[in-house]
Amino acid sequence: MRDSEAALRALAHPGRRRVLELLARDERTSGSLAAACGWTKPAASQQLKVLREAGLVEVRADGNRRLYRARRQGLAELRAFLDEFWLARLAVLEDEIRGSR
């Protein structure tokens, strides 16, 4: 993961999680995302910037429109980080439980 801390901070915001849910289904413009989330267009652009910098969203030009979509590789990297994180923590817990018997 490029920056797991940035990705986790980005996902701490419920509105950004909603954007990822929407972008997981299909590409959308920032205006469409703003309307779906009840944001102004500048607010949507700001939230999209955070998600892009965290590696969770990517953008492509389509004529004069910019289309945003979930960056599947970024989401997979975050998932791998979290899986590894929890496996390590559970292994420590298991060792502590076995040691206390």
Description:
With 101 residues, this protein is mainly alpha-helical. It has one domain (4-99): Arc Repressor Mutant, subunit A (Orthogonal Bundle). It is built from five helices and two strands; from the N terminus they run H-H-H-H-E-E-H. The chain has helices at residues 4-11, 14-25, 30-37, 41-53, 72-99; strands spanning 57-62, 65-70. It has a two-stranded antiparallel sheet. A hairpin with a 2-residue loop joins strand 1 (57-62) and strand 2 (65-70). Helix 3 packs across helix 4. The radius of gyration is 17 Å and the shape is elongated. The protein starts with a helix and ends with a helix. The model has no long low-confidence stretch (mean pLDDT 92).
Number of strands: 2
CATH class division: Mainly Alpha
User: Biggest sheet: strands side by side, in what order?
Assistant: 1-2
Shape from CA axes? elongated
Work out the strand percent: 5-15%
Mean pLDDT: 92
| Cα gyration radius (Å) | 17 Å
**Helices and strands, in N-to-C order?**
HHHHEEH
Give the N-to-C terminal Cα separation.
Answer: 38 Å
- For the record, the CATH architecture stands as Orthogonal Bundle
Give the name of the CATH superfamily: Winged helix-like DNA-binding domain superfamily/Winged helix DNA-binding domain
Number of domains: 1
Taking pLDDT < 50 over at least 5 consecutive residues as the criterion, the unreliable ranges are: none
CATH topology: Arc Repressor Mutant, subunit A
The major pleated sheet works out as: 2 strands, antiparallel
- In DSSP terms, counting alpha (H) and pi (I) runs of 4 or more, how many helices? 5
Structural class: mainly alpha
In helices, the fraction of residues equals 55-70%
